[in-house]
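User: Can you model how 2-acetamido-2-deoxy-beta-D-glucopyranose sits in this protein?
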Amino acid sequence: MSKPRPLLLAAAVSTLCVLASTVAGDVGKPLVTAITKDAATFLYSAPIIRNGQPSHQLVLDLSGPIIWSTCPTDHRTLECNSVACMRAHRFHPPGCPHTGYGKPDDDNPYRCKCTAHPHNPVCGDTVSGDVTRTALSANAADGRNPLRPVTFVAVTSCAPESLLAKLPVGSVGVAGLARSGLSFPAQVAGTQKVAKTFALCLPRAGTGVAIFGGGPLFLIPPERPAITDMLAGDTPLRTYRGSPGYFISANKGIAVNQAQVPLPDHSSLTIGLSSTIRYTELRRDVYRPFIRAFDQAMGQSARVTPPAAAAPFHLCYDSSKLSSTRLGYFVPQVHLMLDGGKNWTVFGGNSMAQVDRHTACFAFVEMKEGKTGYGDRAAPAVVIGGFQMEDNLVVFDEEKQQLGFSGLLTGRGFSCSNFNFTMPA
Ligand SMILES: *[C@@H]1O[C@H](CO)[C@@H](O)[C@H](O)[C@H]1NC(C)=O
Ligand SMILES: *[C@@H]1O[C@H](CO)[C@@H](O)[C@H](O)[C@H]1NC(C)=O
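Assistant: Here's the modeled complex, given as structure tokens:
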């Protein structure tokens, strides 16, 4: 029996040295990556190059605490008593109790191989996977253009092909973006010596952009000020029931057309953000008064019976009777009235979905019971989904523990597909 392990190890170490020398000049620079939207699943992915192979992408998951992907069969596995292994066990997926850090090595019963719990945010499956190291590449950026590729070694979890179910064709795993030690932004911050902050600009159409490690971020036309300096608001990040995800609170509730929506419970509303649900979901006790308020504010003149294609929406309108503006259809604005006094404002461009040529529907949905993993009454009041974040710049700043947001960029003549991905000569 051959024992190729020491050789492999040496090879891995020497590659690490080569990688380390290529990145030295770009340490301290933020990393930028494109964001694509999959037409079939509406999930957002980043073409982060893994182990030197391009044309692979990782699905972006704001609630995911780790990075996971399929692995080569000869991968190395970290030891259970490593710091990375402790970090991999800081958060557990819903319904997945902590049952130790790993399992005995087949070749050496005295060695404990670290395993983590990669979770598929779409189908909800969780498996056990070896914790390993993977070389990932993205581009160092000056805020206006990508400059050059940078490779860094990240702690990741392996997962079987079967865990890729319901993810876009071409994806090899998930890049967790949550508030944990092993998320993609945390590992960029640690290896690149940049701030633990990132900004997402999810595209409605075309290619969006994410920047990890701080601004500025400029969109075309480049002579305009940095978009990161034009934020409409920021609000404190909250923690919620041990989840690693991003939460804010709306201590004054929700307003539609400047009028407060009457809610049965007057306490502050918890709002989560998710990149893996399409439309914003509201808990049943909040959803019903909310759509009633929108229905009243809109009036009946353009209202139509929702066509079959409109499910799961309840309020639909004849779009030829709505006027169009740079902020989308001219409809009543929704204000989430946040802690700290700022409003997250949803204009027509983020509130109305065109379901067929003649019909636009109010694109908020009722949360399905039992789906969130919190138990029904304990679910957040609102989870903002992808459609409502598109063409907004959202800044997740773990250093200041704040969430910043731009509001709908089309109102200022920008869109999230306006980043200049051309490398300067
Ligand atoms: C937030 O929205 C509410 C309701 O529309 C409005 O009364 C308030 O003035 C807004 N606050 C800010 C800071 O714009
Ligand atoms: C994009 O960036 C390249 C490289 O800096 C530059 O030559 C080009 O003019 C930019 N394009 C636009 C539309 O600003």
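A couple of observations from the model: Residues 5-23 form the longest helix (19 residues). The longest strand covers residues 129-141.
User: Helpful, thanks.
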